[in-house]
Amino acid sequence: MPRRAAPPAVRPHGRSLPLRVGTRGSPLALWQTRYFLSLVSGFCPVLRAAQAFEEHAITTSGDRVQDRRLADLGGKGLFAKEIHEALLDGRIDFAVHSLKDLETELPPGIVLACTLKREDARDALILGPGCGAVPDPADPWGAIPAGAVVGTASVRRQAQILHARPDLKVAVIRGNVQTRLAKVREEGTYAATLLALAGLRRLGLESEAALVLDADAMVPAAGQGIVGITVRADDTELHELLAAIEDPEARAVSTAERALLGALDGSCRTPIGGHARLLPDGRLHLTGLVARPDGSFLLKRSLTGAVADAERIGRTLGESLRADSPADIFA
Description:
By secondary structure, the chain is α/β, with parallel strands linked by helices. The chain has helices spanning 27-43, 61-64, 70-73, 81-89, 155-164, 177-185, 197-202, 236-243, 248-264, 310-323; strands at residues 19-23, 53-57, 94-98, 110-115, 123-127, 149-151, 169-171, 192-196, 211-212, 227-232, 272-278, 284-291, 298-305.
């Protein structure tokens, strides 16, 4: 799908510079923010000057607590709560998020104004020194010893691992990408972990992956690999500016995936996966997954349709999965 041409009149008329951008302070979050700023500067000559932007690194509730799952703290919105507050208060003009960390229903007055081109959405398997040789893609878990501890804070990953290998143990691992790699590679705290391939690539750490997992073997999180930009709903100037760098394919697949989440209405304790892609014939194909955290139940289905029906596809698939899943999963 071709990217829209930049409107010739796009520029922040009458707005004082620098424009203030909110972001988390991790190395990956800062990379994503600077990548976004490079794109938006390319479409607006006024913003190519030095000091046109001011980064505001904001520590979120999800960043402050590193020893518990997000589910135990209140959900994925904890990676955005303080950033939303800064946006609504006028302390920042827009905010950069990993879309998978952004709650499906945003606070009143905030909208998802732009999605950037998706990086590879798949998960990567990281193996510690106690594991076997590089695994066979047909048996991605085969290199992990029986009864070993796999580190992850994601109930989505946990459920799919335990469904395939119920002998394994799962323990919480938190922190930024570099911290989690060190806990597996250097400290030996965990035999293995999983990380988003997109984050590894953006940080130049793709070589740390022993294997990239097929999206059917490990259904990714909805929005994984996509950077999303939020603004105040009434900020028409930034809406116009961000429309110039919107990636239509990323918008289509993220719309389907987020509609799937909305229909399931699961909490952060509910293992949910969602992965949409465009087929060679131009249609949109969405895979959704619902499971129990212990892997004892796992339901996976797919639905295909027109790109224009992305939201309906996501909602329909979500309703189907919910209808055929045990009620306790969504309690």
